Amino acid sequence: MNVTARTPLYQKIQQYIRELIESEGLKSGDRIPTEKELMERFDVSKITVVKALTGLANENVISRVPGKGSFVSELSAAEEAEVPRPVFGRTPEEVKPKTGLIGLVMPSIYDYFAVRLIDGVRRGLSSKGYRTMILLSEGDLEHEKEAIKTLKQIGAEGILVFPVDEEHYNDEILNLKFSGYPFVLIDRFLPGVETNYIAADGRLGTRLAVEHLWELGHREIAICSDSPLQTVTVQERIEGYMDALKDKGALINPAHIITGFRIHASDEPEKHPLYRYIRSGLATAYITLNGKLGVQIQQMAKRNGLSIPDDLSIVSFDDPTSVVEELSVFTHIKQFEYEMGLRAAETLVDIIGEKADRSGGYTKTLLVPELVVGRTTGPVKPH
Predict the structure, then answer these.
(1) How many other CB atoms are found less than 10 A from the CB of residue 31?
(2) Where are the beta strands (DSSP E) in the chain?
(3) Whole-model pTM over 0.90
(4) Domains of the chain, first to last
(5) Phi, psi for residue 125 in degrees, rounded to 5
(6) What is the DSSP pairing of strand 158-161 with strand 101-106?
(7) Where is mean pLDDT largest: 20-24, 47-51, 368-372?
């Protein structure tokens, strides 16, 4: 009996993609057909397509990005073009002359966290002979994209990005990755996407806050964020908050997790949901995920006739009140933002100078936060 060898379907898909990259001249970062398109083209299940794409990803033919699709990898593009693998994904012809300029994209500079972080960045870059250009995204994803494009156009040798709070990825950041453009993310990362980034350990930060308030006798502890719940930073800090309460044997009260709202200067505080929540007395302590929100809760509490910390305790992420720590008023989670900026700058300079160890993958740095006790936390008030 003659047996005809059959090529597995997943291998046919892999061969199709390889030929597509070669015949179409696809470059690093170009998108390949989606899982759905491949399922329809080959009349196969999603499992078969995923197996094919996973195999290609393991061979560095493509890169897969959750929620975005699959793209031609740097290695594959170089091999198909039969040229030596370029430095950081760029051929020698594409490497621009040195400008000595580094770009920094920030959402805003309205608080001391940003001031201290920028100070660290500038110190780290100036010590290596680089100039810093700061562009503000104003917390808007489209503005962030334009800022990155602008910095690339004017010849920035590398870019530091403090990403905005959004549920979706910034395509321009993905383009930086796929093109091999030197960049480092600050304060947060993109889930499922390998990049260089530096941040403080958010889970540990909220754990420190909960443990401090618990020792003061607080059991009704709320956590507040004016950013969407889906962002990585918010998720990690809330997870740390819940883990800390579970370790204490406490039940998680969903009503104490307050997210997704906005407070504007033009708002009437008395009409804001958070104002009514504070007035209700449901929580005796609040953890705010940024310093500005801590100040706003303090102001709302005073409007409600509450005294800080006698009636209500507040722990904020970052110190919203002073550049000089000795003059700090708020009990806060110190994230060492100056060091964060300094080390982000140093990492980027190493990448530009090809000093970073690329064999070990990307540089991921988590700073260990500390609790600084100020005058906004105290023992829970007896009923």
Answers:
(1) 14
(2) 62-65, 69-72, 101-106, 131-136, 158-161, 183-186, 197-200, 221-224, 257-258, 285-288, 313-317, 331-334, 364-367, 370-372
(3) no
(4) 9-72 (1.10.10.10), 101-200+336-368 (3.40.50.2300), 202-335 (3.40.50.2300)
(5) -80, -45
(6) parallel
(7) 368-372
